[in-house]
Amino acid sequence: MGRQLSGSSVGIVGYGAIGRYLAPILHAMGMGVSIADPYATVEDTRFHHVPLDTLLSESDYVICLAVATEETENLMNAVAFARMKPSAFFLNLSRGNLVDEPALAAALTEGRIAGAAMDVGRALDQMPTLDLAKLPNVIATPHIGGLTPPAIEAQALDTVEQVKELLAGAVPHGAVNAETWVRRL
Question: Which CATH entry fits the domain spanning 9-140: 3.40.50.720, 3.30.2320.30, 3.50.50.60, 3.40.50.2300?
Answer without folding.
Answer: 3.40.50.720
